[in-house]
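Appendix B, record 7
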Amino acid sequence: MFEDALMESGGKLKTRSKYWMIATFVFNGLIVGLMILIPLLYPEALPHNSLTASLTAPPPPPPPPPPPPPPAVKIIKVVNVDNGLHAPTKIPKDIKMVKEDAPPPPAGAGVAGMEGMAGGAPGGVFGGITGGTGPAIHVAPPKPTGPTRISAGVIAGNRIAFVEPQYPPIAKIAHMSGTVVLQAVISTTGTVERLSVASSTNPMFNNYAMQAVQQWRYRPYLLNGAPTEVATTITVNFALNGAD
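Structure tokens (predicted):
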């Protein structure tokens, strides 16, 4: 026997491996077929949890929220007001004309001089007696509450006394010039009052300009024939060839 295993038998040994292989395939096929058929024939044999997970559908999504209620409708009640005017439904046979009497004129009162009134006089007074002459009314002109504003050119023509401003020595040495504009109130007698500096090109000239202008005199400014206090501006120029 050992020789048959080590040496070629020359066809003496016959193997049965082919039949065993066929039998093995058939046996394995039967096992696989049984594993497939048993769950189909007996589904209760499967695990309950896995069967439930495979057959149970997911829960449906929650329904959408309900829509908001519609706004309340405000009912407006229309009330028909009967004003008593209606279109006639029939044409009347007789149409009566209504004639209203004119009211009587007031006695003893009226506007004197009104057209159509006897004895009226032009320029009469409301409530005057017919045929009489009303008293003449004189309205006084309103009095000014403060100085009247007059332009510098007009007030310059009323100047009757002039004092030339002194030139500042330092400005004269430095050959400096300047202009000072003063706000002034001229009284009813023509004197200069309430001086103040409105503008100046150099403060060095301010005091010299005010000292000179305070000595100036003007004719009183007449308003409605009476002397009036006026407010104006006065310009003083400083130059090396003279001052004004």
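Remarks on this record: The longest strand covers residues 230-239. Residues 56 and 244 are 118 Å apart (CA to CA).
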